[in-house]
Write a structure and sequence with these properties.
By secondary structure, the protein is an alpha/beta fold. The chain has 7 helices and 7 strands, in the order αββαββαβαβαβαα.
Length: about 260
Amino acid sequence: MTSPRAKSAAYPPRAAPAADPQVAERERVALGWLHTAHFLTSAPQLEHLPPVDLPEIAFVGRSNAGKSTAINTLTQQTRLAFASKTPGRTQHINLFGIGKQKVDDAVLADLPGYGYAAVPKEAKLRWQRVMGNYLMTRESLRGVVLMCDPRHGLTELDEILLDVIRPRVQQGLKFLILLTKSDKLTRSEGAKVLSITRLQAGGGEVKLFSALKKQGVGDAAQLLWQWVHPEGGAAAAEPQETPEPPEEPEAERLH
C-alpha cells in the first residue's frame, strides 16, 4: 500500500537523549522510523477499511485525552493527526503508513475518540460497535495504544475497551496505556497513578507521557518499533539515515 507522504510543518523538540548510548541509538532509530508516517486512507466504517498485510497499531482513547497530540509527537509531525474543533465529532478511522526508504512495514490506525458528552447517544453506540468490531476482528492488528488523562484515570468506557481486547491480549496482542499530559502531575502523583494503572492494565504496558516536556516519547517509540520488529535488536544497532521531510499529500484526509 503506497501513498504520498504527509508533510510536517515544523519539527517539535525531540525527546531528551538517553544516558546509555545503546538506548539512545535505539530511540533514534525508532523515532526516525515513526517520522516516516504518512497518510494512507480514511474510512467512515469498518467495512470500508482496506485489508492490509502489514502489522497495524491502533491508537484509541476518550475525546480530549490527547490522542492526536500523542500521534503527532511520536511521529515528530504537526499535521499528521487532526483533532476536531468539536471533541467527539471525528468519526473516521484514519490509516497512516510507516517505513524506511518509502517502503511501508507497518500501519498506524487513528480511531475516533469516544465518550464526549455532547455526542448523541446513538452516535456513541454506533462508534462503540465499530471500534469493538475493529478491535476484535481486524486480522492485521498487532498492538493497541490507549491514551488516558492521568488526572481522571481509566473511565468506565476505557474499562469496557480493555475487556474487549483482553482475549486478544491473552493471545499475544500488544497493549500500551499512555498516561498523557503527565506534565500536569507532581512526581508523587505520577508515581501513584502509574502504579494504579499498571494494576488495571491486565498485562499491558503503562508509561507516563508528556508531549510538552517530551517525557516517555523515546520509550514509547522503542516499544512500537519492537512490536513491529521483534527481531529488531540487531537492526536497531545499524546506522540509519536521517529521514527527509515527507511530501505534501495530494488528497486531504477526512476528519
